[in-house]
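Could you help me review a protein record that somebody else here produced? This is what I was given.
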Amino acid sequence: MAITDYDAPRRTVVELEEDSLEELQARRASAQSPVLDLDEVEAIDGFELPGADLSNEELSLSVVPILADEFRCSRCFLVHHRSQHVAGPQGQEVCSECA
């Protein structure tokens, strides 16, 4: 993968045509040298992967049951207000977005 420095000053077409083969090969070799930025390495150390051990964490939230003027769509399984209810096939409860 080639690394492009978009902040570098651009050269004109005439300057690009004047480059010798040796200069181009040297520039290409120096651009492909593996150099690690220490800041990136430090940033990776503080990153936790998904599936990390979360056994010490507690999830606390209150679950509110479906109210009298709400229904659960049989296609998207979201809870909607009765104003979005559309009669679906075979008596299914479907929201207007899924109909």
